[in-house]
Amino acid sequence: MIKHLPGWTTLLLGLVASSALAGELPTAKPEEVGMSSEKLAKVSATMDELVKDKKLAGGIVMIARRGKVVHLQSHGLMDIAANKPMRDDTMVRIYSMTKAITTVAALKLHDEGKLGLDDPVSKHLPEMKESTVAGKDGPTAPSQEMTVRDLMRHTSGLTYGTSGIAAADKAFREANIFNPKSTLADMTKRLSQVPLAFEPSKDWHYGVSTDVLGRVVEAASGQPLDDYFQQHIFKPLDMKDTAFFVPEDKLARFATNYASDGKGKLTLLDDPAVSVYRQNPKLLSGGGGLVSTARDYMRFLVMIGRGGELDGNRILAAKTVELMKINQVPESVGWIKFGGEIREGVGFSLGFSVRSKMSAWDPKGRLGEYGWGGAASTHYWTSPKDDLTVVTLEQTMPYSFLTEFAVKGLIYDAIVAE
After folding, report:
1. pLDDT one-digit tens code per residue, 197-243
2. What is the pLDDT of residue 23?
3. Alpha helices (H) in 54-162, listed in sequence order
4. Is the CB of residue 80 less than 8 Å from the CB of residue 54?
5. Cis previous bond, 126, omega within 30
6. N vs C: which end of the chain shows fewer Cβ within 10 Å?
7. Strand partners of residue 397
8. Largest CA distance in the chain
9. Mean pLDDT over residues 60-73, rounded?
């Protein structure tokens, strides 16, 4: 890990030391892309303060502007007990950051004519034809079937069993949806018997939709999800450390996951030595199953930022990428919400949230900004207007906006020229 030095010196040394990690992504001095080295140094100071206060064991911040990496810095520890420093190439559980990758996989099949965004899900998964909607007088047939688009934007009626609709939540729990001994095909068959929390396209609720989308990818492509990811996304983008498990030869780079009370107490949650991530899982969760690195995920995001192409490898059509950058949730549904928390101005596109209006929710964000996070408090965002992409990684649960909100304003403030 590079120690902090004033201004560009710190960033330059960090980038030189990790040049192999940055892969084909070019690097630049912040000033070369309209950013301030001095102001970016505040990001590192803030991260160090969070580590000092034990709000997180360790973290990584990676920043790219105009497709060039201007900041890659690791902080603190990846394993407290072993006193192992966080590394620029540390592997982490990205949980729901997996969702964007699964969505891109499905959109690639859309570009190839193998599935349509408005296809009924049952066209690819016949068992989902049996889906019903929970009601006061028992389950009823939906007035319209959920579509592939519904899965991508979380308007399918599927949840994580936390909808507040008693019948739907009880059935979800009893169905043991995430049984690790089952396959995606097994999972969707069980889900078809769980009542939807609402009519498809009539509301928004975060949930298991993207896991079902992963099964759609398998059905439409004829390949297991992990094989499809590897052949069509990871290999062409050189995402060499992104997978559903951590092989033995990479285990030394896999971070420990901690439970945080938010007040400076960190408790061991998942030890890499005995983690379930050491084995390739049977249930390939397209909604939250991947591990990755800052370098890999940045390559994925830069591909999206460049209109679907990176280093001569086109993953998506440019017009398809544009669909990912606009709110896809029907206006009648409103903004996305978690329980009683309404994120005013924030909608959901195809794979991640997108900012359509400024409000008191995350006021340091930018109009048009898109991104999402993972359960271990990892996060990413892109501001198309600023041609800026940021990845922040840590491993603390439950999910917290702490790191994102601590550095977001500092990073935007470091932009000194368009």
Report:
1. 999 999 999 999 999 999 999 999 999 999 999 999 999 999 999 99
2. 52
3. 98-111, 148-153
4. no
5. no
6. C
7. 259
8. 67
9. 97
In the chain, what are the domain boundaries? 1-87+404-418, 95-244+280-352+361-373
Token look-up 């609709």 returns 165
Q: Which CATH architecture has domain 95-244+280-352+361-373?
A: 3-Layer(aba) Sandwich (3.40)
Nearest by Cα to 147 from 107, 192, 116: 116
Report the DSSP pairing between strands 388-393 and 291-292.
unpaired
Q: Which amino acid is at 411?
A: I
Cα–Cα distance measured from residue 322 to residue 343, given in angstroms and rounded to the nearest whole number: 23
d(CA 379, CA 320): 23
* Contact present, 88 and 69 (Cβ < 8 Å): no
Q: What is the pTM of this model?
A: 0.94
The SS3 assignment for 22 reads helix
Note whether 284 and 292 are within 8 A (CB): no
- The label of the residue with tokens 């892969």 reads 23
Q: What is the pLDDT of residues 316-329, one digit of tens each?
A: 999 999 999 999 99
Angle at alpha carbon of residue 70, lines to 231 and 257, rounded to 5°: 60
C-alpha to C-alpha distance for 285 and 160, rounded to whole angstroms:
13
* Confidence label for 136 from pLDDT (cuts 50, 70 and 90): confident
Q: What angle do CA 276, 277, 278 make, to 5 degrees?
A: 90
Alpha-carbon distance 293 to 6, whole Å? 26
393 — pLDDT class (breaks 50, 70, 90)? very high
Which pair of structure tokens corresponds to residue 212? 């079902």
Q: Which stretch of 20-29, 185-194, 212-221 has the lowest confidence by average pLDDT?
A: 20-29
Percentage of the chain exceeding pLDDT 90: 93
Classify residue 29 as exposed, middle or buried by CB count within 10 Å of its CB (0-12, 13-18, 19+). Answer: middle
- Secondary structure element (H or E) that encloses residue 309, with its range: strand 309-310
